[in-house]
User: What shape does this take?
Amino acid sequence: MLLSVSLGGSVSAQSVRFSQVIDDAMKHSGTMAIAAAEAAHARASLSQARDAYIPQAIVGSGLGASFGFPLTLEGSAPSIINFNTQSMVLNIPQRDYIRSAQMQWQAASTQTLDKRNQVILDAATSYIELDQALSKLKVLKDEGEAAHHAEFITSQRVSQGIDSELDSKKARLNSARVRMRMAEIQANVDVLREHLSKLTGIVLADLVTDAESLPKFPDVQQDADLASLAVESSPMVKVADQRAQAEEFRARAEHKQWLPTVDFAAQYARLSRFNHYDLYYLRYQPDNASIGVNIRFPIFNASQRATAEAADADVIKAKKEAELARNQVKEDTLKLQRSLAQLSAAAEVAKLEYEIANTTVDAAQSRLESGNATARDVENARLDASDRYASYLDAQLEMEKAQMQLMRQTGKLFDWSNEKK
Assistant: This one.
């Protein structure tokens, strides 16, 4: 197969293997970049919650003139230079906030795996669709030649008075139908090539698939409990469970806000006489410092009580969402598993119809040689065989798409896509 690649005005010929498309999609996909950014954001939120125990240090100045008694500037005494530091020492709710942030980070990391499977499914489906569309184009080209030949034979028979004008119109209609299908499939091929080019970052004038590089699809046993396997391995279920745990930790933290807290704090300030400290304070000195702990005992906070109740509601919601996700994955997996039996049977029927149509072509050719059929009969048989082959490709594609979706549900898609051919 030939692949035209535009690069600096030169064109090189090659085919793109399935594994290359998957690897490039993983590296270039915007979906993966967004998932990585979300995971990094969650990781930063976890660090932010943990770093509350690390002292913060601020150096500044509160320069300003004083008239009369030296008042504060934004809560601090006017000073030439000042230094402030503070950190948590004992904060029981913060521990649960950290656990909540940790679960959110784990959920974001797990969601990255689900996004990875989404990208693989998108790339694999587009690659296989393109492969089958190119096969259809080849078949339709042969079908178009057969239709054109049949149209020519019919026009000859009409001119000889053997066939009617209606037969001529039917022959032209067959040719027009083939051209219409070719235009439709060519448009689909162009769209698939553009999509794969954007997905993988490969700049291609023509993207040609390599059918030999496709991994073999595994057999699906209808008596296997794939639904339970899907629930155990589904990233979507894991993400829902982890977010429910995160909400539960956050609710615990909100309910613990009534507990006492202890913070460490220290302050240094260099004061100046132009703020009149020496006039209003008995023992003035320029260098001053304070160090100690700030202990708080919450007594009443109606707003916090409402916040805790809202957090409890969020926990109930998150747990129900996790339950719904589990049930949805189980139901979707069972549907896919059962539909594969129907799609497999449909593909087998389409294959047999194609084989029978091929036999009909051979029979028509034999009758033509014996004088019991016309060349138009042979061409019509070939048209029917081409149609049957296209139907077989469609049935095969639907079955393979269902197989890939089932592998995604059961956590087998990544391993399958990385099989070496």
The longest helix spans residues 302-370.
